């Protein structure tokens, strides 16, 4: 029992650490690499995916196109970031070239975002130009209901390929297939997180497959709907430690109302 409590404390501390990496690392723009356990894909297969970048095509987070002017991403990608300093690359399999590079007019993240617990890790960007749909650029609809545990889902991004000592910096979009784990199951004894999974979160798990640093803000898609936003996790692709995502149905009304007023 005592060992179990110590384990839980370590996990809680570890997750706070993982969250912190995503929130306030000295240089949030320095993270590059790819998804763990994934494979090369194309933007045409995931045309809602975008790369958020600083000058010189410096990728720092993912995002999803939800209409002609609006990108959904994670709050922790936007803390301390100025709209005029960032660009969105849309319609490209490669994060560093191709497609369209569009400026950002405004950004906002949830007033209920909690950087300690990672609850409500959601934000939006308003593009400076309208983006019409093409074969490589498509809007994705927001899920209204969290899919059942076990539902297959796909997560994509240009984030880290592994957690420690990752040197590779692939330019090609990666995809990985995972399964939905609802927040109650994710916080149950089946997995190792315990009480730190909240109802604004949804998890996704598959052995040795996961999102990782730099995938943050990007899409978790099931049944052709945006069901999650890459948010945090204890390391990446660790046994019985699923990736944790913002539960889109929980933050849908925030996204919709903010999108109208921003
Ligand atoms: C991060 O720090 C991060 N394994 C993103 C996703 C995951 C872990 C960490 C999920 O941005």
CATH topology of the largest domain: Thrombin, subunit H
Percentage of residues assigned to helices:
10-25%
Uncertain segments: 1-34
Radius of gyration: 17 Å
Bound molecule types: 4-(aminomethyl)benzoic acid
- Counting DSSP E segments of at least 2 residues, the number of strands comes to 14
Q: How many domain modules? A: 2
Spatial ordering of strands, largest sheet: 9-10-11-14-13-12
Looking at CATH, the homologous superfamily of the largest domain is Trypsin-like serine proteases
Order of helices and strands: HEEEEEEEEEEHEEEEH
Structural class: alpha+beta
* Main sheet: strands, sense, barrel: 6 strands, antiparallel, barrel
> Which percent range describes the beta-strand content?
25-35%
Whole-number average pLDDT?
87
Work out the helix count: 3
> What is the CATH C-level name of the largest domain?
Mainly Beta
Distance between the amino and carboxyl termini: 50 Å
| Mass-distribution shape | globular
Provide the CATH architecture of the largest domain.
Beta Barrel
Short description:
This protein has 262 residues and is α+β, with helices and mostly antiparallel strands. The chain has helices at 2-24, 183-186, 248-261; strands at residues 39-40, 49-54, 58-67, 70-73, 87-90, 100-109, 123-127, 141-142, 152-157, 174-181, 201-205, 219-222, 225-232, 243-247. The protein starts with a helix and ends with a helix.
């Amino acid at each position: 029992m005592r060992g179990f409590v110590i384990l839980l404390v370590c996990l809680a501390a570890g997750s706070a650490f993982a969250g912190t990496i995503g929130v306030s690392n000295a240089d949030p723009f320095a993270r590059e690499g790819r998804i763990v356990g994934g494979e090369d894909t194309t933007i045409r297969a995931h045309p809602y995916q975008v790369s958020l970048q600083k000058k010189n095509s410096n990728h720092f987070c993912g995002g999803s196109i939800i209409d002609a002017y609006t990108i959904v991403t994670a709050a922790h990608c936007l803390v301390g970031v100025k709209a005029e300093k960032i660009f969105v690359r849309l319609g490209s399999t490669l994060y560093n070239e191709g497609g369209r590079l569009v400026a950002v007019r405004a950004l906002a993240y949830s007033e209920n975002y909690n950087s300690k617990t990672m609850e409500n890790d959601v934000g939006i960007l308003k593009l400076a130009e309208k983006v019409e749909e093409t074969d490589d650029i498509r809007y994705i609809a927001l899920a209204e209901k969290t899919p059942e545990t076990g539902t297959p889902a796909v997560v994509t991004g240009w984030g880290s390929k592994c957690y420690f000592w990752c040197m590779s910096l692939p330019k090609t979009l990666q995809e990985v297939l995972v399964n939905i784990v609802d927040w109650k199951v994710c916080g149950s004894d089946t997995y190792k997180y315990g009480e730190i999974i909240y109802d604004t979160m949804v998890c996704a798990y598959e052995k040795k497959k996961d999102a990782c640093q730099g995938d943050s803000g990007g899409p978790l898609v099931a049944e052709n709907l945006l069901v999650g936003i890459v948010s945090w996790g204890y390391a990446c692709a660790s046994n019985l430690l699923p990736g944790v995502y913002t539960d889109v149905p929980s933050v849908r009304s925030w996204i919709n109302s903010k999108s109208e007023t921003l």
